[in-house]
Amino acid sequence: MGIISRGFGGRRRESVPGLPPGQYLTHDFPVLSAGPTPRIPLDRWRFTVTTETGEKTSWNWTEFQALPAEDVTVDIHCVTKWSKLGTTWRGVSLDTLLADVESAADYTMVHSFGGYTTNVPMEDLLDGKAWVAYKFDGEDLEPEHGGPARLLIPHLYFWKSAKWVNGVQLMPDDDPGFWEAAGYHMYGDPWREQRYQGD
Amino acid sequence: MTQPGPRGAALDGNAMAGDLREIFAVDVTAARFMCAGCTHTDAVATLVVWHQSPGLVARCPNCSDVVLRVVRAPDRVYLDLRGSVRLEVPLEGS
């Protein structure tokens, strides 16, 4: 044992690797909802990319399932301060979904069944940073957690990982989404604790 | 596909009384809103409030559109009223 006791230092939040400032670890998976949980039959599910000129590319569930999928293990951080480390997902990379889309847009608005929206810069959707995920922990994604499919963009606070996602609108300028318009940060980097406007 | 329907963990508009009291000098839960989505009008206390989320989300009991949102930061409260055409606030003594 060392001369200087570590005391309770080992329990300090900032001493947990992978935990951004102000966050605490959770091992369950809290459900946060801003409204009723939409139940989307798979035969009515569709994901649509709309460019700034109005051109649309869309996939139904069968077409979406035929796209190459990736298994990813990532840490997720909710703005309400819980973090969950090492979560496992399966989904289609936004690199795949945007590969053949011609656009000069720098920003996007992510849309969901039920009307939820959140804004994400285009560069944050690309280069292996974002997926449309449809499995969590090896199982089909439950409706309460955003199933049939949700956006997964783990390097931003989890409100950006829109549940029940059904499309991305590409935009030349940044516009606020559902929570951003109500006071939350336009970007939402958990490592810079960008929770609210002005942070 | 979102229906006004099972409220699940939602509360009624009275759940917002404390937060709104910090913004307004009157009890806003007694005010009447007009929903921007369907023009339904009723007391703020009748709104369906989703509170297990990053803020309070109050939805119209008729069409489930969002009527108002309240977000609390440590030193600020944000109130988003875009889903309301108006609030009708009764004045005492009139």
UniProtKB/TrEMBL annotation, chain A:
Domain of life from the UniProt record: Bacteria
Chain spans, region Disordered: 1-21
Oxidoreductase molybdopterin-binding domain location: 35-179
UniProt cross-references to CDD domains, sorted A to Z: arch_bact_SO_family_Moco (cd02109)
PANTHER family: OXIDOREDUCTASE MOLYBDOPTERIN-BINDING DOMAIN-CONTAINING PROTEIN, PROTEIN-METHIONINE-SULFOXIDE REDUCTASE
Record-given protein name: Sulfite oxidase-like oxidoreductase
Organism: Paractinoplanes hotanensis
